[in-house]
Amino acid sequence: MNTFTYSYPVKVYFGEKAAANNLSAELAKVGSNVLLAYGGGSIKKNGVYEELTGILKEAGKTVTEFTGIMSNPTYKKVQEGAKLARENHIDFILAVGGGSVIDCCKIVSAQAKLAEDIWELEYGKGGRPSEFIPMGAVVTAFGTGAEMNNGAVITNEEKMLKSALWGAFYDFAILDPAYTMTMPLKQVISGAFDSLSHSMETYMGSPREVNLSDEINEATQRNIIRNIRATLKDPQDIQVRSELIWAAAMAENGILKIGKVTDFQCHMLEHQLGAYTDCNHGQGLAVLHPVLYRHMMPEASRQFARLAVEVWGIDPVGKSEEDLAGAFVDALAAFIKEIGLPTTFAEMGIGEDTDFQAIADSTTLTGGCAKKFTSKELLEVLTECR
Asked: How far apart are CA 356 and CA 362, in angstroms?
């Protein structure tokens, strides 16, 4: 296990009525001007908007709304939110939604306090923001675990890059499973697969020897797999939904990463696929993972073999490490098909005219991956996914 420092700043209020029971006390700690951020307006159809604006009104807050945050939030949208925050002298941001809203607001929080462009600060100068507007998150769509960290994935359309920016941690996050029960089933499954991907990407990083973090990770993966299947049997089982929400949080609150350098090569490749196609993130990962892992198999066979046994329940008797590694990738591919996620780009509507060369060339090559990929081999992966 590598050396580490672990500190976790986000307070989590988990369970039904979490907002009703806790939001007022948190709002009493912040200033009067609140930016209420959300996406396409689904919170106005399921009662969440009415409940939260009622709590804000009772707390005596002046509310400015920042709406229309899209899936795969753009850098232009970040700048729009930062401008709104500055003009309205915002004291606190309440982000309501899934990973897109929550990620966008992390960077709004930082950019609103910066005199310079945050992309140039982080990518041009190698700096990080140090001052932020305080924030709280109310999760209505899960999977990314975005509320658990200060990283955000933002699409810079001018640069054709979908990349990480670093902003603020949330002071608190409200995870009420009841708020997620109106999510479309396809979104539930793709979001939950993203959680599984986060867990696998962390597990595949170095060191390769299994440590305590990895053993907790194995349990998290088993939980996600079991509860995706249970969700498909009964999408309205709130206890199953609770398990998936907490698993998403566990995958991104840092616990599984303690003592490790993570992989996330599949995520980097999918991000650039998203930059060029604006595709669904979880679906893109589902197509990429088995193909990428077959390319990784010689270098990652030890970890793949352990996952075959400890996560997927494959009997190791009479099987070599290579046999088990192949069985793991086969089990993952079969599971993706079983739960109705796409297995090719064609199923996602991504056409042959997509510039896969540009996607491969612009993908970040991660240091923690078991295999040191080249852009040329990533192009091979993309081509095999078509």
From this structure: 10
> Hey, what are 242's tokens?
């609770």
Q: How many CB atoms lie within 10 A of CB 75?
A: 23
* pLDDT-flagged residues of the chain (< 50): none
Q: What pLDDT is recorded for position 8?
A: 87
pLDDT on residue 378: 98
Residues 6+ positions from 377 with CB-CB distance below 8 Å: 295
Phi, psi angle pair for 74, to nearest 5°: -95, 160
- E strand map for the chain: 11-14, 33-37, 62-66, 92-97, 135-139, 151-156, 161-166, 172-175
Residues 126 and 109: their CA atoms lie apart, in Å, by 19
Considering only CA atoms, which of 175, 240, 213 is closest in space to residue 13?
175
Structure-token pair, residue 244: 């998936």
The yes or no reply on domain 186-384 and CATH 1.20.1090.10 is yes
pLDDT at residue 292 in the model:
98
**DSSP per position, 121-181:** IIIIS---------EEEEESS-SS-GGGSSEEEEEETTTTEEEEEE-PPPSEEEE-GGGGT
| CA atoms of 273 and 85, how far apart (whole Å) | 31
Residues 68 and 61 sit within 8 Å (Cβ to Cβ): no
Residues in the chain: 386
List beta partners, residue 335: none
- Residues 6 or more apart whose CB falls under 8 angstroms from that of 38 comprise 49, 65, 66, 67, 69, 95, 96, 97, 101
Peptide bond into 298 cis (omega under 30): no
248-264 tens-digit pLDDT: 999 999 999 999 999 99
**363, 378 Cβ separation under 8 angstroms:** yes
* Boundaries of every domain in the chain: 11-180, 186-384
CB atoms near residue 3 (< 10 Å): 5
In this structure, whether the domain defined by 11-180 belongs to CATH 3.40.50.1970 is answered with yes
Q: Which of 327, 286, 334, 291 is nearest to 309 (CA)?
A: 327
What does the alpha-carbon distance between residue 175 and residue 142 come to, in Å, rounded to a whole number? 9
CB 297 within 8 A of CB 329: yes
What does the pLDDT look like over 337-371, one tens digit per residue?
999 999 999 999 999 999 999 999 999 999 899 99
